Every structure is written in structure tokens, then in C-alpha cells.
Amino acid sequence: MTAEADTAGFRTFNNGLFERMRDMNRSRLERLRDIHRVDADFSSKLLFAKNPAEATALCGEWMARRLEAVTSEQQSFAIAWLGLISDAVNKPAPVASQDDPDVVIWQSKPER
Length: 112
Hints:
about 110 residues, mainly alpha
């Protein structure tokens, strides 16, 4: 494989990686906005609760929906990152020969 082909493959991989990361971040921001909407909706309902029993019921429903939304968001985020890591691990790295002038061989001396 030539250096130009290695570079082109690396650029293609990086472009795909950054595009997926951008999509992940957009998706995550949208889910965080949804969580914020749930919070805003229930806080306004709580503000106008007529008695403590109604406020307690609203808080219970609010926490249940918020927990569901946050759990779903974290699960989606973890799945997306695992996909990125899997792609990086499964992508074969270009093999360089020791004759290549760009290859630096580093060897540490064992401690005594």
C-alpha cells in the first residue's frame, strides 16, 4: 500500500468518524432539549397545583418521565459511542515497514 493510499484511507476514516460524532452531538442536544421541555412543562403544572396532594402526584409523574428520558438519552449516547469505538477498532491500521523513513522505532531500556 502506498503512502498516498494510506493517507486517503485515513482521511476517509476521519471524515466518517467526525460526521458520525457531529450527528451524535446533534441527536444528544435534541434529546436534552426534550428533557428540558419535560422539566418546563411539569414545573409550570407544579406552580399551579391546587393542593399538596396534586403537587405530590405531579412530582411523582415528573420524576418518572424525567428518569425515563434521561435513561433513554444515556443509553442512546452509550450505544453511539460504542459504535464509534467499534468502527475504530475494526478499521485495519496501515502497516508500515521498518524501511519507511517516516517510521520511528522506539525502544525503552529496561529499568534495573
